[in-house]
Amino acid sequence: MHDGAAVEDGGRAARYRDVFAVGEFRILFLTHLVSIAGDQVARVALAVLVFSRTGSSALAALTYALTLLPELVAGPLLAGLADRYQRRTLMIICDLTRAGLVAIMAVPGMPLWVLGGLVFAVPLAGAPYKAARAAIMPTILSGDRYEVGMGVTYTALQVGILGGYAAGAPLVAWLGPEKALLLDAVTFVISAALVASGLSAHPPAAATRLPPTKLAAFRSLLGLVWRDRRLRYLMAFGCLAGCYTVPAGLAVPFGAQVGAGTAAVGLLLAAHPAGAAIGATAMTRLVPPRRRLMLLGPLAVATSAVLLPVGLVPQLGIMVALCALCGLLSGHDAVAVATFTRIVPAERRGQAYGLALAVVRATQGLGAALAGVVAQFSSPSTSIAVFAVLGVLAAAAIAVGWERVRPHGATPAGSDRPTRSGR
């Protein structure tokens, strides 16, 4: 039994110290923070590198999209490795593979087509890592500690993005894109060392009950998600990020539109995660468990709606403030992810998380790519406003459907077993 798994919550809401008392959670938290910060530095470096060479908003946005779209393939197929193999070993292999790929990107004068291929390959190696981490979490945190742990992990994600973006632009301006990419490679090596020294083996749960092939497992998983309307709507909430994260993909072109420099791009990129870190903390610490799922719909609509004014007033200060508010409202994502993961049976969590992440990331990547095309023929600010309108309309439809199937009592995230409600 893993440390912390046997401790019951005693009916009270979990506290941060309950979560951080679990040693393996501290390792997962720290490696997540380090890797995410490095990734954001790399995204800034790549966007600046491509935009400086081509001057194209579409190509700059496409580069950002290439860091997300590969998970459409990797999530459903490769994430299932976390349900079949020892999870600690899998995480170490993934970290070292990504370190090598990013180090190759840092070679000066790398042709853009080669760079694009490497950018595509890095998320492929990351999908099994993320699935393994997500599958480990419910085994080391019980009861409400799991949801609080997911909330603080989501906060760590936003803090890592914030730190990476805030430091990324000055680092890229100071070191240059190539050396900044090397820094990202180092973060993966650090993560691998921490996982090797701080996690137990974590063999997969009940591997013998899984379908015999990856394709059969994927089809079975699709059936599981399709049959449970709660899972479908929770995944749909995540897909809305494809509309309200568009400013990240257009940060460099928007900075050029308003006459801002590279450092200002860092502000634009950091604003959303700064707000999201606060929003996730508020949702998991201040909002009672019974009300969290009720707020998903209204918050999803509001998250896109707050970006509408940028189409009328394209100014740097206003854009930064709107992105921060958007991030604050998007804190509901932490609850959606935790609920989705807990509803899925334990032996399918790795691939289920991979599937959900693949769909969400692919939506974000597609949104960034399409927004870049719209910006090329209009302006970055117009493109952001257009996708905000689409986000509001989609969120309203999802919210109506979710209200019909959501549990009206305690959140299903409090149990490892899926219930029949919403099926």
TrEMBL record:
Gene Ontology cellular component terms for the protein in this record: plasma membrane
Domain of life: Bacteria
InterPro entries: MFS, MFS_trans_sf
Any GO molecular function: transmembrane transporter activity
Subcellular location: Cell membrane
Alphabetized UniProt keyword annotations: Cell membrane, Membrane, Transmembrane, Transmembrane helix
Transmembrane segments: 27-52, 58-82, 152-175, 233-254, 260-281, 293-312, 318-340, 352-377, 383-402
Keyword Phosphoprotein included in the entry's annotation: no
A Pfam family: MFS_1
Protein name from the UniProt record: MFS transporter
